[in-house]
Amino acid sequence: MKRIAIQTDDFDISAELAALEALGGGGVASFTGIVRGEDGLVALELEHYPAMTQIQVERIAQEAMARWPLIGLSIIHRHGRLIPGERIVFVGTASRHRGAALESCAFLIDWLKSRAPFWKKAHYADGAGNWVASRAEDEAKAQDWDR
Amino acid sequence: MAAVTLVYFAWVREAIGRDEERVDLVSPDETIGELVTRLAARGGGYAEALADPDRLRAALDQQFVGFDQAIGTARELALFPPVTGG
After folding, report:
1. Is residue B54 part of a domain?
2. Tens digit of pLDDT for each residue in A16-32?
3. Predicted ipTM > 0.90
4. CA-to-CA distance for A33 and A93, rounded, in angstroms?
5. Which of A16, A19, A61, A120 gives 20 to 30 Å between its CA and that of B43?
6. Domain for residue B85, yes or no?
7. Residues in chain B whose Cβ is within 8 Å of chain A
8. Does the keyword Transferase feature in the UniProt annotation (chain A) (predicted)?
9. How far is A132 from A134, CA to CA, in rounded Å?
10. What are B19-33's pLDDT values in tens digits?
């Protein structure tokens, strides 16, 4: 099972996990990214490159399936305007082995952060808005998987 | 004459003030870096967005590439800041 969704709408984590559990692999790992409301942030706007996003996330999913024995994988990434507390991204993996489920889940979120064409703009209460700068440590984490 | 559709994202799009445009190439051998330098020379928002290639990333026909890549017969060249998804 491979599910990839790029959408504005929220999603039901219970349903996503249940679908992975129903595959019968015995192990399911997941990561959920949520908008932090720190420093007076009122909204996070996620822009993406529609013609590329699906293709690129598909490539990242294929890479995970080539590296680990997965029987299921779900990636949901939202775009549009999100407020603090809202979910941004979900990664779920299912395998017969916990190591494969946990490692591939970490790999997927690291690669999504630095290899999927999304950009975040932070909006603040005083009306200011600024594009979130990429972090060198995120790129380093993505590259660590190639060592 | 060879041409390519440019698409811009995030602050690159905001500085230039448009999300896409068609641009003629000097030749199919023109690299992304050469085209970016040529566009930055237009000044204004183009200079603001494109003057420092180290702040930019590129995708040619939806595939990440380096700035020394020739544009060739590609249909779409995207210019944007380093991604910040996840």
Report:
1. yes
2. 999 999 999 989 999 99
3. yes
4. 15
5. A120
6. no
7. 7, 9-11, 59, 62, 64, 76, 78, 80-86
8. yes
9. 7
10. 999 999 999 999 999
Beta-carbon separation of B85 and A116 below 8 A: yes
Whether the CB-CB separation of A136 and A88 falls below 8 Å is answered with no
- β-pairing, A2-7 with A70-78? parallel
A33 φ, ψ (degrees, to nearest 5): -100, 135
- Domain assignment present for residue B56? The answer is yes
Q: Tell me how close the Cα of A22 comes to any Cα of chain B, in angstroms.
A: 26
Q: What is the C-alpha separation between A43 and B75, in angstroms, rounded?
A: 35
CATH number, domain A2-144: 3.90.1170.40
Residue B86 and residue A88: Cβ atoms within 8 Å? yes
How many domains, chain B? 1
In Å, how far is A102's CA from the nearest CA of chain B?
17
Backbone angles phi and psi of A113, in degrees to 5: -65, -35
